[in-house]
Design a protein that fits this description.
The protein is an all-alpha fold. The protein contains 8 helices and no strands. The protein is elongated, with a radius of gyration of 15 Å.
């Protein structure tokens, strides 16, 4: 799974100062958390491909993935919902969360994320 490509919308949010509070106080934070849980589930589905001696290490990494992502890419920003890209960012993350594991692993984008990227480029 190409995690860096999947995290691109969240990284862009953090760069623009749009990231929601880590307390999951708003819909974008909740959607990002749900998306992270989805990525964990997809990774766990692939655990059969991991050698038994490496599974404990992979599982340990997965266990802290969402907390680490939230603290690293979603810093506290009380004004994030007021940003003009907030609805597009939320739609992007929700659309990614709705993708199948196979679609996420293929690394494609969704129309909502393409729209978000296009709008974010016009605001730079």
């Amino acid at each position: 799974m190409n995690a860096s490509r999947l995290l691109a919308p969240l990284l862009l949010l953090a760069t623009l100062g749009l990231a929601p509070a880590p307390a999951l106080a708003d819909p974008l934070a909740e959607a990002a958390h749900d998306f992270c849980l989805k990525m964990q589930g997809c990774a766990r589905q692939r655990m059969g491909e991991v050698p038994p001696e490496s599974r404990a290490m992979v599982e340990q990494s997965l266990a802290g993935m969402c907390t680490q992502m939230r603290s690293q890419y979603l810093p506290d920003d009380a004004n994030g919902q007021q940003h003009p890209l907030y609805p597009d960012a939320l739609a992007c993350v929700q659309s990614m969360q709705a993708q199948s594991c196979a679609a996420l692993e293929a690394g494609g984008t969704t129309p909502a994320c393409a729209r978000y990227e296009e709008r974010s480029n016009t605001l730079r």
